[in-house]
Every structure is written in C-alpha cells, then in structure tokens.
Amino acid sequence: MSQPLLSSRPPSNTRALAAAVAAAREAGELMKKNLSRAKQVNESHQHDIKLELDVQCQKLITRALATVFPSIPVLGEEGIDAASEKAVARWVVDPIDGTVNFAYGIPHAAVSIALEVRTEDGFKSEVGVVYDPFMDDLWTAIRGKPARLNGRITQVSTRARLDESIVSLGFAKNQDSLQAAQADFLELTHRVRKLRIMGSAALALTYVACGRFDAYVEAGVRLWDIAAGGLIVECAGGSFVTHSLPGEHRYGLIASNGLIHDQIPHARTTGAKLKSPSPKGKSQTRTRSKSQTQS
Ligand code: LIP
Known about the structure:
five-stranded mixed β-sheet, 295 residues, Fructose-1,6-Bisphosphatase, Chain A, domain 1
C-alpha cells in the first residue's frame, strides 16, 4: 500500500520511474490497438490534430499514476491540474506525442511521462520515460544516472562532424516556429549528411540519446513534448539547451551529442538567452543580440 505523498517531499525516483513505466506501457497498448482504427477527432487545425484518444490516454495515465502517488498532480497536454503550479513534484505528460502521425496511421509516436521536482530555480525533470509502443522501445532516465533503452545503458553518438551527422528538425504548429524551422532547414540542408523530420519531439530526443540522431532542433514545442526526452538526452551524455518562448509552457530547443552543438546555427532557433536546463546536464548558455530574438 503506497504511503500518501507528504507535501514536503517528492517521491523516491525509483518508485516514480516504476509507476511511470507501467503507465506508459498501458497507454502504449491502447495506442497500438487503435493505430489502424478510425479515430474520433476532437479538433482539427492545418498543422495539428487533437484526438479523443489523446484524452483517453491521459486519463488512463493519470489513473495509473494516482494509484501509486495519489497526491502528485499532472500537467498534461490534455489537461493541467491547477495544483501542478505550486506542487513539490508534478507529472508532465504527453499521452500521445506525434498525434498527427498517429492520426494518419503512421507508427511513429510515443508516450512521454516525466516527474518534475520544484527547485529554487524552477521545476526540473528528475525522472523521464518515453515509450514507443510500435517498436516496443522504452527509454528511461533518473537524473544523475545513465539513460537506458530497454534496460541497457544508452549514450549519444560520437560523431563530431556536422557533414557526417543526421540532424532532425521539428516543424511545429504556428507561423513563427514554422518560419524558424524553414530557416534552419535551408541553413542545415547542405551542411549535414541528412535531415530528418519525423513529427515527434519526444522520439527525436530519445533518438539523439541513443545515437540514431546526432542533434534535434525545434522552436515552439510544449513542456510535455520534451520534459522526459530532455532528461534522457542529458543522462545519455548529450546537451539539451532550451529557451522559453511567448505562450504557456512553450520552448525552443537544441539537443545534440554535445560534439556538434556549436556547429548548429543558433541564429533562428534560439531566443535572446538560452538557459541551461540543469547544472548536471552538459549544456551551454549563449546570449543572442536582440535582433535575433525570436518573435
Ligand atoms: C508534436 C511534437 C512535434 C511538433 C508538433 C507537435 P504532439 O507534439 O512532438 O515535435 O513538431 O507540432 O507539437 O502535439 O503530437 O503531442
């Protein structure tokens, strides 16, 4: 029987990881069962779709987590518990990251669950789980420990040349992030081995963590897309640098194996000031002139 969380301290990372893995696998099963079925669309925009299954998966994850940790609130893409603003710890959940892929029956989407703990300089991911149910790939991380893929330690690539690298770009949902991505696309195309645009931030981050990608760049993602994957990159020895953008929980990011980080143009993807995600992560802080600040 789990002890109710005392308001003064976060849960043990090991127990939190086990609960997040169980919840992610349960939601992953629901995704797998529904990939090729007709799906109820709740909202449809030119660059985004929201499914009823997103809502159902977040409810399932919330229920599963609450059986172990009844008092940790959830900040999720499909609903934010107001208590998550001031809690000692919170779950950050994207029930289906890569929803448009999933809606079209493309098996490249994942469940992303992070446990964030409140520190003197804001919330910081302590536990991260990303589960791809279609490949049955489970990435896990606890801050300060090695990242794992299906239980085995995983690390970023050792490629140090941009022209030998695969860089993934994210094309988000609104004009400023699409323009930033277009600029990066033009700038990087001729300098890398290959660009990849796959449609899931969480999986792009885990691909960097396990060396399938050498870097990932996106402007305009939300916290729930990256809270777990960013920690997994850091625990795999990579760099994960974010900066906040106008809008709730909205960020630009550059994640890499650390070796090619400085070769990636920062001009259009990052804002005025990058904040390093955490003292332990290999990251860098840069300031940009105002003129290059993203709108
Ligand atoms: C998606 C991200 C992707 C981004 C999309 C969308 P969702 O998350 O994973 O990187 O480009 O615009 O935000 O909405 O599928 O959970």
